[in-house]
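Postdoc handover notes: sequence design on the structure in folder B. Input tokens:
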């Protein structure tokens, strides 16, 4: 009996070890890249769910606003995790976010703007209408790109967006943008950010929409805006334009694209990542010291933009940036961290997580990027 036990115990231990190794290999095979898509999805879903219940996000008719930092990046990134997680349908949180967007888009003429002039002051109605129109268009266009067919909802949303494009003045070709003096996406510096999202919407729409004759004059005006303003905006904004240029031919000139690529690599930090404050040349409004460490938002956007314009995966600098993302996901929460460039915030608070929400979504877009 003792001999039998001596034989059985090692065999049992060997089987247990084999199962453990197989489990680890299977877990790695889910993503194949050293980061945890399931944890990222859990973080993004939880933040989207929270947004739907946050009183400050509530709007008329039981809807809620979208945001440049939380729900818009979420709506763009969450579908990219579906294949990795073997999901057959959108998550409940994604259905809520996109469903709310469609509810408001379909009631466009009747639904109140996010920030009416009557309660927020002029020009908040026009800013709200423009930013929402662009968000609707880019989310729906990218959804349709996956399906390969332009839906009626998306065609309508694109039409509404075009109707709000500015035709005159220094921002001709772009859209007025929501200004709360909050960088990087809701400040006087943000119209270029918004125009980049609009370009992504146009270039993502299937069935050759971006090249159609019906919008040629409007696209020409948009390209003129980019070629006139690209050199005047921060490198962080230029990276948004670089990403958009991968979808719209000649949005940027070859010289503009190359100068942005060169500047991005010149700003890369020794650890392989990038810093949001440095790329945006931001100064905090509360006079606190800016955090100059590598962060998830700038690194995700830089690597996404560089991949999108064809920087090869074999480029050691790009590899180093993507490796930084793989190494720096917080496995306990699933997020990539980023800190507000505007002021000191409690990183454990819901509002303190806004930049990390965006960083996590863009990290997913970068790490799942495929041409």
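Designed sequence:
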């Amino acid at each position: 009996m003792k001999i039998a036990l001596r034989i059985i115990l090692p065999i049992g231990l060997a089987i247990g070890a084999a199962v453990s190794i197989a489990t680890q290999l299977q877990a790695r095979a889910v993503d194949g890249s050293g980061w945890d898509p399931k944890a990222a999805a859990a973080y993004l879903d939880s933040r989207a769910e929270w947004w739907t219940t946050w009183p400050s996000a509530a709007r008329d008719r039981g809807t809620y606003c979208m945001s440049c930092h939380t729900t818009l990046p979420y709506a763009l990134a969450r579908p990219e995790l579906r294949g990795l997680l073997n999901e057959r349908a959108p998550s409940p949180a994604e259905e809520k976010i996109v469903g709310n967007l469609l509810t408001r888009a379909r009631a466009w003429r009747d639904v109140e703007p996010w920030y009416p002039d009557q309660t927020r002051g002029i020009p908040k109605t026009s800013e709200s209408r423009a930013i929402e129109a662009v968000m609707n268009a880019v989310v729906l266009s990218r959804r349709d790109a996956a399906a390969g067919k332009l839906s009626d909802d998306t065609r309508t949303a694109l039409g509404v967006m075009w109707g709000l494009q500015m035709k005159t003045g220094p921002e001709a070709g772009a859209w007025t943008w929501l200004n709360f003096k909050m960088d990087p996406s809701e400040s006087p510096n943000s119209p270029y950010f918004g125009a980049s999202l609009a370009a992504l919407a146009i270039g993502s729409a299937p069935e050759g929409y971006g090249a159609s004759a019906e919008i040629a004059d409007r696209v020409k005006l948009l390209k003129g805006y980019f070629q006139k303003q690209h050199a005047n905006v921060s490198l962080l904004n230029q990276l948004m334009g670089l990403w958009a240029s991968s979808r719209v031919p000649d949005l940027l000139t070859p010289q503009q694209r190359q100068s942005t690529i060169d500047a991005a690599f010149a700003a890369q930090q020794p650890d392989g990542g990038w810093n949001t404050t440095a790329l945006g040349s931001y100064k905090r409004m509360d006079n606190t010291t800016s955090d100059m460490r590598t962060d998830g938002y700038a690194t995700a956007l830089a690597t996404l933009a560089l991949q999108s314009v064809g920087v090869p995966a074999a480029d050691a600098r790009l590899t180093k940036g993507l490796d930084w993302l793989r190494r720096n996901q917080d496995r306990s929460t699933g997020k990539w961290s980023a800190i507000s460039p505007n002021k000191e915030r409690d990183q454990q608070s819901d509002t303190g997580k806004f930049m990390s929400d965006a960083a996590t979504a863009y990290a997913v877009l970068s790490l799942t990027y495929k041409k």
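Context for whoever picks this up: The chain is about 55% helix and 0% strand. Don't rerun without checking with the PI first.
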